[in-house]
What we know:
Cytochrome Bc1 Complex, Chain D, domain 2, binds heme C
Amino acid sequence: MKKIFALLALAGVANLSVAAEVVGNAANARAKVEMCIGCHGIPGYKATFPEVYQVPKLGGQSAKYIESALKAYQKGERKHPTMQGIAASLTEQDIADVAAYYSQQK
Length: 106
Ligand code: HEC
């Protein structure tokens, strides 16, 4: 099941087909995490610019934690201007995909 889903995702058709239920798909996240990498480092790794500020490591954190953190930035419950802006640009599906992706990193 997972394999098929990943193949569909690679073919670019899964995006529309899962509108009913938001299920995180790590394979779908690759393009989406490109904009995270500059700050959160290589996936699964740590801060790229520690001399500017400490950026939390995302790889290996639980999907639930990443999801709730991003939603908290969206709602303004967590206050960090950059992350609020970034979270605001993500859809619920994007968040689920990104959370799945990072939770599978070691
Ligand atoms: C411009 C730099 C920058 C970019 C780009 C960026 N982040 Fe962040 N991110 C940060 C910083 C700095 C923090 C810590 C903010 C704080 O203290 O609340 C953070 C925090 C987070 C957290 C909370 C982590 C924790 O342990 O509490 C998550 C989740 C997160 N970012 C996800 C993402 C995702 C997903 C992307 C890409 C879609 C992304 N970030 C892009 C700088 C960035």
